[in-house]
Amino acid sequence: MLLIPVGIVWFVLYWIVGGIIFSIAALFKVAKLRKAQFSCLFTLASIGCAYGASHTAYVFGRNEIQSCLVQANDIFEQLASVMACGMLSIIVMGVIWFVGLLALGSILLFLSRARNQSWVDEKLDESKPEAIGKINEFHVH
Questions:
Q1: What is the DSSP letter of 113?
Q2: Where are the domains of the chain?
């Protein structure tokens, strides 16, 4: 029961914060990047790391959580006791898996480099002279 809400929270945090970090890194990176490939792989990596964080938090905090669940009467008390007793393991595992996600994202950033320029980049490259036949009256630099 704990894995799903904690996993969703970790996924959203990982995806947003990690996405911001790697978009800034991609801006300063000189090499071209396959953005769609990196985005898909990073989303899958965020899902995997969020599941890993919530699962390992449950495994390492199981004893504390079980002792708190014995005292809870209804579902709201169970949820509150799980969050209160398992908070340390949830936060520690979340931070550890986020560091792992940053390392994995760095590898994915390296693997998602484009070897050549795309056709859009060739059109935007002003160092290449444009053929005379392709110049028309609406062409403005």
A1: B
A2: 3-20+33-113
Helix 75-111 and helix 62-69, axial crossing angle in degrees, nearest 10: 160
Is the pLDDT confidence value at 61 over 60? yes
Would you state the pLDDT for residue 96? 97
Q: Is residue 63 very low, low, confident or very high in pLDDT (cuts 50, 70, 90)?
A: confident
Structure tokens at 13: 């945090």
- Look at residue 36 in the predicted model and tell me its pLDDT: 85
pLDDT of residue 1: 61
pTM assigned to the model:
0.71
With a CB cutoff of 8 Å and minimum separation 6, the contacts of 92 are 57, 60
d(CA 73, CA 65): 14
Distance CA 100, CA 80 (A): 28
| Residue 58 and residue 2 in contact, taking contact as beta carbons nearer than 8 Å | yes
Distance CA 108, CA 27 (A): 15
Asked if residues 97 and 53 have their Cβ atoms less than 8 Å apart, the reply is yes
The strand pairing partners of 33, in sequence order, are 113
118 sits in which H/E element: none
Report the pLDDT averaged over residues 97-124: 78
